[in-house]
Design brief:
Rossmann fold, mainly alpha, glycosyltransferase activity, 142 residues, transferase, Glycosyltransferase, Glyco_trans_1
Length: 142
């Protein structure tokens, strides 16, 4: 599980306040959860254009594209997590920060806004309503 408060506090300070030469005014967001089912806070950070560090398993691994819309790391490995945070801060301070932020924001807008989710759910409901064999429903969001 969970990390001790002293460890998490040091990580949060590094992400929030940065380290000399690595941080940009916007900073970065790290989700240090070892188990994360979905990660709404990650989506919120991505929608604000922050570089994110996310668990390489669970829900975030289905929507964070490593190196494109964020960074996926083994959050059970302190070294990997620290390296991911340092990379995110480098991204935030680098010349490609705006492009990285745009990619993350675009993915959230395309997939997870109320409008996008409503479209996905309406397709699921149409598939269910149109299914001939109601015992073999295949729900598809495509």
């Amino acid at each position: 599980g969970h990390r001790g408060n002293d460890t998490v506090t040091r990580w949060l300070a590094a992400v929030r306040y940065g380290r000399p030469g690595l941080t940009a005014p916007g900073g970065a967001y790290a989700c240090a959860s070892i188990k994360e089912e979905f990660g709404v806070a990650l989506l919120e950070a991505m929608s604000m254009g922050l570089p994110v560090v996310a668990p390489a398993s669970g829900g975030p691994a289905t929507y964070v594209e490593d190196g494109v819309t964020g960074l996926l790391v083994d959050t059970a490995d302190a070294h990997a997590l620290g390296t991911g945070i340092a990379r995110a801060l480098d991204i935030a301070a680098g010349s490609g920060a705006d492009a990285a932020a745009d990619r993350a924001r675009d993915m959230v807008a395309r997939t997870f806004t109320i409008q996008a989710m409503a479209g996905t759910l309406s397709r699921v409901y149409r598939d269910v309503a149109a299914a001939d064999d109601r015992t073999l429903w295949e729900l598809s969001a495509s």
